[in-house]
Design goal:
5-stranded antiparallel β-sheet; about 35% helix; alpha+beta; 25 strands; 7-stranded mixed β-sheet
Length: about 725
């Protein structure tokens, strides 16, 4: 080999070595990249695992009273939950049969909202939706729609579709109905690998133990600890607290007028089977009470083996909502209201065809508008609502009606202080102004309403007119002031307008010149709280508080603060909020107060009370009538507004008792409420001792003293005058 050939060989060898070195370097770098940079990714690919995230529901926040006592709380309960991911290749229908048989053996129910009953002897089905239930009919329509059926589809058509869709042909009719119902529920809850199915809720400890014992042979069937709403005292303001319930199909899937479908609750992080506040404070404070759900991650390999379970996000409980209500005081007011109604029936209505059977009381703090008690009679127990709903809803006493906030009542003479404030403040009258009362108002030729003149006659000033509820005085002053003016003052004081409470309240209305039945003489009827005027008990209490505060009206409210559940730290506190102000130009509110104090001196239970109370009763007529001989009479309600101590008021209240008769019959109820209030202040009032003590106005043997004047004396003015009202001016 010559020298040139040798050089060529060397160069070729060097080239081969260089190429080999580059190739080796590329492989080394690639190996480094695979081992170090993307090792986790390729390891996962090698094992082919998948992560599945499941929601862990956070505990709902408590609702507590002003002293921190729990009213609504979350307690631990257990649900039977099916995990499709963990169930693997198990026969779903066979598994469902086993679970149903186990649940039936322990007296448990399972989730089944299919509105179809069991088949009859001929194998035909019928819908169970109530024809007069709007919710049932909506659910029935939604069921047919979700199954792709026409609205005229029969129950047999629905079952045929379910049997076909879920291949249930081989099962007996009973099991077709059972399994079809469960499959429909699974469809509603979007049962899948990433969404578990809640089959049964709040099961017993025996059922929990049985399912856990059979866990090896029932893969994917789990007991999941959750929380449910419970009430330590289920009868404390149930109407205001409201309820929680499952998310309905209508709230979950919302279709607008353009056919656009959205899922607003899903976008807020809810699952289809979650619980949510549906009414009252539970709904208003849903965002605070709900808490933040956690996440449990389950990792599964490609061959279906679960290789890991971890709580990747710990759930956080909801905040605590603290109310202005004191539980012990609330119960005391509830009992006092019930006692007063019983007293009216036994003392006054024993021979009447119309018994006092319902009423409401609202008590507020005059210092900031906070509600201290809101009583309804009759009422209901939150703990029994689900099991006794049919009884509650069919009860003629309407225990589910929130009379305190939504009951609308003609105020009668309780409206007179508002007219007095308007007339004094606008200069129509002053301290010395009088109206002559001879028992008949003669301003109109064709309308001559009357006054019974109990306790008064002749020239009457504003203080005497309020004390004895002189109709003639307020007819004349109301006519001269006009409804435009006294309505404006009444609105400012909280009548016929929203008080600001956090939950739904009725607005009510005042009599105005825009009313379709308005004629000039309606102004004088409205001036004594009749006409078309209707208000709520919470408005009456707010109005009484405004009178006590010399024209300053605070927003009426139930919530005191939002608290951190873990630490008790105050996160948000409700501050007093002035809603309206009547500028006190002199002695307006002093004169009205003197008249109301005078009125309390005529009422049993109040005239000798150790604390000076200002009050005004009312006896507005109802539309129903009865006859005494040949004389037609109207049944009447008992109404009362009061505040005290009169010189520096702490509380104000509004009272309504349906068919109660004379307004002053609520005098002992007012005294009982003040007794309980002072017992609450000194710490002697407890949940176990909520009966009100003796009032100051009792005889030596403990029986109620007979008043020197007939309790309803003042209020008979209203009833008599209204009986003579023209037919074209009906009371509403």
């Amino acid at each position: 080999m010559n020298q040139d050939e040798h050089k060529i060989v060397v160069r070729r060898m060097a080239g081969l070595i260089a190429a080999a070195s580059v190739l080796i370097a590329v492989y080394v770098l690639r190996l480094i990249f695979l081992q170090l940079v993307n090792s986790d990714s390729f390891k996962a690919q090698a094992t082919n695992t998948t992560d599945y995230n499941f929601t862990v529901t956070a505990a709902r926040g408590d609702i507590v009273d002003s002293a921190g006592r729990r009213i609504a709380a979350s307690t631990t309960s257990y649900n039977v939950v099916l995990s499709k991911l963990l169930m693997g290749d198990e026969d779903l229908d066979a598994m469902l049969q086993r679970i149903v048989e186990l649940l039936e053996a322990h007296g448990e129910k399972w989730n089944d909202s299919l509105l179809i009953g069991e088949p009859d002897a001929a194998g035909h089905y019928s819908f169970t939706a109530q024809a007069d239930s709007t919710s049932d009919q909506k659910a029935l329509a939604a069921m047919k729609d979700s199954l792709g059926l026409q609205q005229y589809a029969t129950a047999d058509d629905v079952m045929e579709k379910l049997v076909e869709d879920y291949k249930l042909e081989s099962y007996p009719l009973h099991w077709q109905r059972v399994l079809g119902g469960i499959h429909y529920e699974m469809q509603q809850q979007a049962f899948s690998n990433v969404n578990n199915f809640v089959m049964a809720e709040n099961v017993s400890e025996v059922t929990v133990a049985t399912i856990k014992e059979n866990s090896l042979t029932m893969p994917g069937v789990e007991i999941v600890e959750t929380s449910t709403r419970s009430y330590d005292e289920g009868d404390i303001i149930p109407h205001v607290l409201g309820r929680v319930g499952k998310i309905t199909a209508e709230k979950w899937k919302v279709t607008d007028e353009n056919g656009q479908t959205t899922y607003p609750l899903r976008e807020k992080g809810y699952n289809m089977n979650d619980m949510i506040g549906v009414s009252g404070l539970e709904a208003v404070y849903e965002d605070e009470l709900r808490g933040k759900d956690g996440v449990e991650t389950i990792t599964r390999s490609s061959d279906g083996v679960i290789v890991g379970t971890a709580m990747t996000t710990v759930p956080e409980p909801g905040h605590t909502v603290q109310l202005t209500i004191d539980s012990a005081f609330q119960q005391a007011v509830d009992k006092a209201l019930a006692r007063n109604i019983e007293m009216i029936n036994s003392t006054y209505n024993s021979g009447s065809s119309a018994k006092a059977a319902a009423g409401a009381v609202v008590v507020i703090s005059t210092k900031d508008g906070s509600v201290l008690a809101a009583s309804n009679y009759p009422s209901y127990d939150q703990n029994l609502f689900a099991t006794q709903y049919s009884q509650y809803s069919s009860d003629p006493g309407l225990p589910l009606l929130n009379r305190a906030l939504q009951g609308l009542y003609t105020p009668g003479s309780t409206f007179k202080p508002a007219v007095a404030v308007a007339a004094l403040d606008s200069g129509v009258i002053n301290r010395s102004s009088t109206v002559y009362c001879n028992g008949v108002y003669t301003y109109y030729d064709d309308y001559r309403p009357k006054c019974t003149r109990h306790g008064h006659s002749g020239n009457i000033d504003v203080i005497t007119a309020i004390k004895w509820s002189c109709n003639i005085f307020f007819y004349d002053v109301g006519r001269r002031t006009t409804s435009d003016v006294y309505d404006a003052y009444a609105y400012k004081m909280g009548l016929g307008t929203r008080t600001g409470v956090e939950v739904n309240e009725a607005t009510g209305r005042l009599t105005t010149k825009k009313d379709s039945n308005y004629i000039a003489s309606l102004d004088v009827q409205a001036a004594i709280g009749q006409g078309n005027t209707v208000v709520t008990p919470v408005q009456l209490a707010t109005y009484a508080g405004t009178l006590a505060n010399r024209g300053v009206r605070y927003r009426t409210h139930f919530v005191k603060a939002i608290l951190d559940t873990n630490t008790g730290k105050v996160l948000q506190e409700t501050q007093p909020e002035v809603m309206d102000v009547i500028e006190d130009r002199g002695d307006t509110f002093d004169l009205v107060r003197q008249g109301m104090i005078g009125m309390s001196e005529t009422v049993s239970g109040l005239k000798n009370y150790p604390v000076t109370i200002a009050c005004k009763s009312g006896t507005p007529q109802r539309s129903e009538t009865y006859y005494v001989g040949s004389t037609r009479k109207h049944y009447t309600n008992t109404m009362m507004v009061a505040y005290g101590p009169a010189e520096d008021a702490e509380i104000a209240l509004g009272i309504v008792i349906e068919y109660g008769g004379g307004g002053a019959r609520a005098g002992n109820l007012v005294a009982d409420i003040f007794d309980s209030y002072y017992a609450m202040k000194d710490g002697s009032l407890t949940l176990d001792e909520t009966g009100a003590g003796e009032t100051a106005d009792t005889t030596a043997d403990g029986q109620d003293a007979v008043p020197e004047t007939v309790p309803e004396t003042v209020e008979n003015n209203d009833a008599l005058a209204d009986d003579t009202a023209p037919a074209e001016q009906p009371a509403v």
